[in-house]
Each structure stands twice: as structure tokens, then as C-alpha cells.
Design a protein that fits this description.
The complex is a heterodimer. By secondary structure, chain A is α/β, with parallel strands linked by helices. Chain A has a single domain, classed as HUPs (Rossmann fold, 3-Layer(aba) Sandwich), CATH 3.40.50.620. Chain A contains 8 helices and 13 strands. Chain A has a 9-stranded mixed beta sheet, with helices on both faces. A two-stranded antiparallel sheet of chain A has the order 2-3. In chain A, β4, α2 and β5 form a beta-alpha-beta unit. Helix content of chain B is 26%, strand content 29%. Chain B is an alpha/beta fold. Chain B starts with a strand and ends with a helix. Chain B folds into 2 domains: 197 residues, HUPs (Rossmann fold, 3-Layer(aba) Sandwich); 117 residues, Rossmann fold, CATH 3.40.50.1220. Classes of the chains: A alpha/beta, B alpha/beta. At the A-B interface, α3, α4, β7, β8 and β9 of A face α3, α4, β7, β9 and β10 of B. The structure holds flavin-adenine dinucleotide. Flavin-adenine dinucleotide sits at the interface of chains B and A.
Chain lengths: 291, 339
């Protein structure tokens, strides 16, 4: 039976879905520091698709790859709890300021180092930018086909895969051989929950640098339990052209960022008293805005 | 050379609205830059479609027609764009932020090493001074989009790489015919020169395209609900009001994420852009990503329990109160006073 090498790409993102009042600063901008950092939701959907492939082809191996700051190791741990076999944190100051193209380049170099990936799965987009660019750009850098907006793997054999895609006004089922990259849509099934045994096993897994930083007691036990040490790759570990990384490798630049000041319209404020609302409705009807 | 090119997308044989909107924008940018507006159409059975494209002020239309090029597939279409762009060196390339544009754009940008900005809400021409390099860039494309972080708008530029690429969602820009008899040139591309056999690796097994059931874009009245509506149950009040007023129900992303409404109803940067006569925002705080999709509404009413909600600043009428109290009162009055 075929043993697929699967790489799942994941990103740790600020939880922009739960921007509560306390998350707003006095100047009206979001205080990122108080937003919880989470596993990008569609990347979890992607992990579920990888796990389903492994359910069907149990010899397959799932490697979870994330690029980000040291704390992004949290989502690798989360991936281990849910069934990933291996995790790699790609982290280096040289990646700072990367736009989607520089990010894709770095990730594609790391995937090359993982070697022989048959299937790369990632979320369609990350909730902090919504660009949906990294998946297709990684596929292009690797010179492999892509299936975007995937909702379900409808057929998987040793040498081909059929995937259902969700389009604006319908669906499409496409078929392709390996290797390929798949981006998973938010309409795909949610990821299965954590597995209790795996939770116990990987609770103290971390990277060497994170451990040194926090003077972790598990340093010694990690030596005897290799699964507790999560791989950490820097620029030096991947074969790449440094000119294509970070700010240098980013064709897009942020020219400026403006706070928006809205021109207040001439507006009327009313309370929810019956008379006030009646009066407003009457005005809307008589001016033919409604009715 | 160095013109503006728009990728014209086909929706079941018809040119998508977003492509006409981009052609309209492209025409005005081309006038400013004093260059040509070009368009690219890829697919099968393309006869006579040029008659719909030229009136938007298109100077050159490239057509790649072959039965293998329909329906859209990533690699063959990418190959045509990449080869044509290498040859023609456009300075700007625009496409819709649709499932096709968002599949194709990043692939092309990666292949050419040029930057791409997704979901722009405005495109302008301007200069840029790089103080470090002591260099002034003239006539760059400002790619303007709301950015994460609340009330901010980012202006993105690509100083060095060409083409400058951007995607724009349907409905964000206006479409306008320049001249019904505009004379452009049609160039048929020799498909074999642009696409290699090896590009045809994807087989379409099945395709079902429905005409979309939910379409709030053209509705004159939109009653839109946010997280403050509180439940799918309370959303029913919004449907009742919308039905009475002959309108549709919209939603914020927080409401969609909470499962109160379908994604097709989401208004904003990553949803639809609407310009109704009346927009009633119920329990919506008014973050920029939402406002980007409804700011152009003629009349805006905000129903919010928080007098300081940001949306109140752009509303014509603000009702301070709870959605579940206010809407039944509006329904009652309307029923009593119209027939
Ligand atoms: C990249 C990106 C893209 C995005 N795209 C979109 C988009 O396309 N569309 C979109 O909408 N958002 C989008 N967002 C999310 C956006 O930033 C906001 O998080 C979202 O719009 C908030 O939705 P809301 O106003 O419904 O919820 P909240 O911000 O939680 O506001 C709820 C409001 O309801 C009021 N309220 C509470 N209870 C009641 C009551 N009983 N009666 C009346 N009022 C009440 C509160 O005072 C508050 O003002 C995007 C975000 C990102 C990062």
C-alpha cells in the first residue's frame, strides 16, 4: 500500500474573529497583544484532510510545517495532539518583513528539504490577511499543480486524487496525479479533536531554543525522549537564495498606512422610544425611501 | 509595451461583471498614464465577445481560443499570461478577486517574481520617493486595501517589479461603457506557442454551476445584521423587516462566523459590496472591513445599543437601542401605515 508523504502548512494568527471591546486601543486600532494567537482555522481543516488520507493509507506520514516566531511552536504542539507525525518550525529574523512571495519562497525551500512530498495541504487563506496567495505561490515555486478551494477528497488511489472544489456558484470535481498542492476551503469538515493519549505524550514538546529561553525542566527528559524535541530550522538549514527572503525578496512594499477619519454625515440620533421610531418610519415612507 | 492589461474572466461563457468593472478602471488609469488599455480573453466559443469588450475603451484584445482552454484550469491559463506578459511587458495587470482570479493571480505573480495585492478597494496612480536609495519612482500603481488592525487603510506599491498586479472584488468598482463604437484591435494568439502540452495535467470530472440563489447585490434595501443580533433566532426579525420592505438580509463577518447567516450574505471587504438606497445596520460595530462594502449606500440607519459604535459616525440615523426591541416597532409602524 502506498505511503504518502504529506506536508501540512499552517500559520499562527491573531484571532481577528473575536476582536472584543478590550482589544481596541484608545486610538481605535486593534491591540494585537491582547488577541489570542490561534491555529489559522482553514489550516486546521487542511490538517483534517491530511489525517483522512492517513486513515485510508496508514503508512503515510504527516509533517506539519509552520513559518513564524518562536511561539508558533504552539500550533505544532496542537498538530501533534491531533495526529501529526512530525512538526517543523521555520524561524529566522531574516524572514521578517516577508510579503506573500518571500514567504512562499522560504516555505518552498523548506518543503524541498523535507524531500519527496507527494501531497502538500494548506488552508485557503489566513484570517489575518485573507490574501489566499501563499498556497498557489508555493505550488508555483515547486513547479507542481494546485487545487484551490478544496472541500473534499472524493477519491484517492496510489497514483491519483479526485478533489471537489467549491466555486462561487457551484462545485467542480477535478483529478490530478502527484505531487500536488491543495488549499482547503472553510466549507470542508472541521478538524477532529485532540487525542487524549497524544496530549499526554506531546504536552511538553518544544524546540530547543524555546526550552532554553524558559529554563524548562524537561530539558533533561527531552534528551531521552526525542519526540519531545520539535525541529527548528533557520535560514542556515534550508538551501536558499537570501536575496529572495524577507524585505529584500518582497516586491510589494507598504507605502503608507492611514487611519481613516470618517466624515460624519449629517446624522440624527434617536432613542428606541415608540414615538421616535414612528417619526423616523414616517419620514422614510414619505420621502419614498421605503414603501 | 508597458500598457495596462485586464484578464477577462468567463462565467459559463459570459464575461464576468468584475471584468467589465476592471476594464472601466483600467481605462481611466490608462488615460492618466497615457498608455493603452489591453484585455485578454481565454476559453472556447469566444466569437462576438469582442463586441462587448471594445466599448469599454479597449485598444487591444488578445484572444486565446481552444476547446482545451475551457473550463478554466490553472496551468494552461497561467502559461498564457506568463508568456504574453514576458513578451508584452505590461506595467499593470488586473484581475477579479474571484475563485479564478485568486487561483491564477498568485501563480502568475510567483512565476514572474512580481508583486500582487489582493482585494484592493481603490487603485490610483502616484509617485514614491525612496529616501534610502535617494530615488524617485513616478507613476506607480497605488494598491489600496483595508488592512488588519481596525481602522487602517494600507497603500501598497511595487517599485521595481513589473507588472504591478492587483485583484479587486466584484462590485467594488463601477462599470461604464466609454463608447459603443470604440475601435480596438483584435489579436488571435497562436495557442500552441503559449501553452505546452505538459500544462494539461488536471482533468475536470464533473461540474455543477447553479445560478446563485442568494444575491443581495442589486437589492434596493438591505437589512444587515451583526454579532450584536445575538442569535440565528433573532435574525428572523431581520428577515421579516427585509421582506416587508422588499429588501434582502445582509450580515457582518462576525455574524456569518457565528452561523447566523450564510456567507453569500456577507457584506464587506471579503464579502459583497453593496450600494442600496437604504442600509439598516443592526448590531454591527462598523469595522473598516465591513464599511468598505456598504459605505456608498444612500441612506444608512444604525441600530446599536452602544452610542459610540464606529458605524454611527457614517450613519444618517442612529437608533440607540437593542435590535430585538427596535425592529418589532419598525415592523409594527410599517404594517399599520402602508398596505
Ligand atoms: C482580513 C479581514 C477581512 C474582513 N472582512 C470582513 C468583511 O468582509 N465583512 C465584515 O463584516 N467583516 C470583515 N472582517 C471582520 C471585521 O473586522 C469585524 O470583526 C466584523 O465586521 C465585526 O462584526 P460585527 O460588527 O457584527 O461584530 P462586533 O464588532 O462584535 O459588533 C457587535 C455590535 O453589536 C452591538 N450590540 C450588541 N448587542 C446588541 C443588541 N442587543 N442590540 C443592538 N446592538 C447590539 C455592539 O455594541 C457592537 O457594536 C474582516 C476582518 C479581517 C481581518
Amino acid at each position: 500500500m502506498k505511503e504518502f508523504q504529506i506536508v501540512v502548512l499552517a500559520k499562527q494568527v491573531p484571532d481577528t474573529r473575536n476582536v472584543g471591546k478590550d482589544a481596541m486601543k484608545a486610538d481605535g486600532t486593534v491591540n494585537r497583544a491582547v488577541l489570542p494567537a490561534i491555529f489559522n482555522p482553514e489550516d486546521l481543516h487542511a490538517l483534517e484532510q491530511a489525517l483522512r488520507i492517513k486513515d485510508q493509507f496508514p503508512g503515510s506520514k504527516i509533517t506539519l510545517l509552520t513559518m513564524g516566531p518562536p511561539r508558533a511552536v504552539e500550533i505544532l504542539r496542537e498538530g501533534f495532539y491531533r495526529g501529526a507525525d512530525d512538526g517543523i518550525l521555520l524561524t529566522d529574523r531574516a524572514f521578517a518583513g516577508s510579503d506573500t512571495l518571500a514567504t512562499s519562497y522560504a516555505i518552498s525551500c523548506a518543503i524541498r528539504k523535507i524531500k519527496n512530498a507527494d501531497i502538500i495541504v494548506c488552508g485557503r487563506q489566513a484570517i489575518d490577511g485573507d490574501t489566499a496567495q501563499v498556497g498557489p505561490q508555493v505550488a508555483e515555486k515547486l513547479g507542481i499543480p494546485q487545487i484551490t478551494y478544496a472541500e473534499e477528497i472524493v477519491l484517492l488511489t496510489d497514483d491519483k486524487i479526485q478533489v471537489k472544489r467549491r466555486l462561487e456558484r457551484g462545485i467542480e470535481i477535478v483529478e490530478c496525479g502527484f505531487p500536488l498542492l491543495i488549499t482547503v476551503n472553510n466549507s470542508a469538515p472541521r478538524c477532529r479533536p485532540r487525542n487524549a493519549k497524544r496530549l499526554m505524550k506531546y504536552k511538553h514538546a518544544s524546540t530547543v531554543s524555546n526550552r532554553q529561553e524558559s529554563n524548562d525542566d524537561y530539558l533533561s527528559s527531552a534528551l531521552t525522549k526525542p519526540h519531545l524535541t520539535i525541529k527548528e530550522w533557520s535560514v542556515a538549514d534550508i538551501e536558499c537564495d537570501r536575496e529572495q527572503l524577507g524585505l529584500n525578496g518582497s516586491p510589494t512594499k507598504v507605502k503608507k498606512v492611514d487611519n481613516i477619519v470618517f466624515q460624519s454625515k449629517e446624522s440624527r440620533t434617536i432613542e428606541d422610544l415608540d414615538e421616535d421610531i414612528d417619526e423616523l418610519m414616517q419620514e422614510l415612507i414619505s420621502s419614498h425611501i421605503i414603501g | 509595451m508597458n500598457n495596462i492589461i485586464v484578464y477577462c474572466e468567463l462565467e459559463e461563457g459570459r464575461i464576468a461583471d468584475v471584468s467589465f468593472e476592471l476594464l472601466t478602471k483600467g481605462r481611466s488609469l490608462a488615460n492618466q498614464l497615457n498608455c493603452k488599455l489591453e484585455a485578454l480573453l481565454i476559453g472556447n466559443h469566444l466569437k462576438n465577445l469582442e463586441k462587448e469588450i471594445f466599448p469599454y475603451g479597449v485598444d487591444t484584445l488578445y484572444v486565446a481560443e481552444d476547446k482545451k482552454l475551457s473550463p478554466y484550469s490553472t496551468l494552461p491559463h497561467t502559461s498564457i499570461l506568463v508568456n504574453l506578459f514576458r513578451e508584452q511587458k505590461p506595467q499593470i495587470a488586473l484581475m477579479g478577486a474571484t475563485t479564478i482570479g485568486r487561483d491564477l493571480g498568485p501563480r502568475v505573480s510567483s512565476s514572474l517574481g512580481s508583486g500582487l495585492t489582493a482585494d484592493c478597494t481603490e487603485l490610483e496612480i502616484g509617485n514614491h520617493e525612496d529616501k534610502k536609495l535617494n530615488k524617485v519612482y513616478t507613476n506607480l500603481l497605488y494598491q489600496i486595501r483595508p488592512a488588519f488592525g481596525g481602522n487602517i487603510i494600507a497603500t501598497i506599491i511595487n517599485p521595481d517589479c513589473r507588472p504591478q498586479m492587483a485583484t479587486v472584488r466584484e462590485g467594488v468598482m463601477k462599470k461604464e461603457i466609454v463608447n459603443p463604437n470604440y475601435a480596438g484591435e483584435l489579436i488571435n494568439l497562436d495557442v500552441e506557442k503559449y501553452v505546452d502540452e505538459t500544462c494539461f495535467v488536471m482533468k475536470v470530472i464533473e461540474r455543477h454551476i447553479e445560478s446563485s440563489k442568494i444575491n443581495i447585490k442589486g437589492s434596493p434595501v438591505i437589512v444587515s445584521g451583526g454579532f450584536g443580533v445575538g442569535s440565528a433566532e433573532n435574525f428572523k426579525l431581520l428577515y421579516r423587516l427585509a421582506n416587508l420592505l422588499g429588501g434582502e438580509v445582509g450580515a457582518s463577518r462576525a455574524a456569518v462566523d457565528a452561523g447566523y447567516a450564510e456567507h453569500a450574505r456577507q457584506v464587506g471587504q471579503t464579502g459583497v459590496t453593496v450600494r442600496p438606497k437604504l442600509y439598516i445596520a443592526c448590531g454591527i460595530s462598523g469595522q473598516i472591513q465591513h464599511l468598505a462594502g456598504m459605505m456608498e449606500s444612500s441612506i444608512i440607519i444604525s441600530i446599536n445599543s452602544d452610542p459610540n459604535a464606529p458605524i454611527n459616525k457614517i450613519a444618517n440615523y442612529v437608533i440607540i437601542g437593542k435590535v430585538e426591541n427596535v425592529i418589532p416597532k419598525m415592523i409594527r409602524y410599517y404594517k399599520e401605515h402602508t398596505k
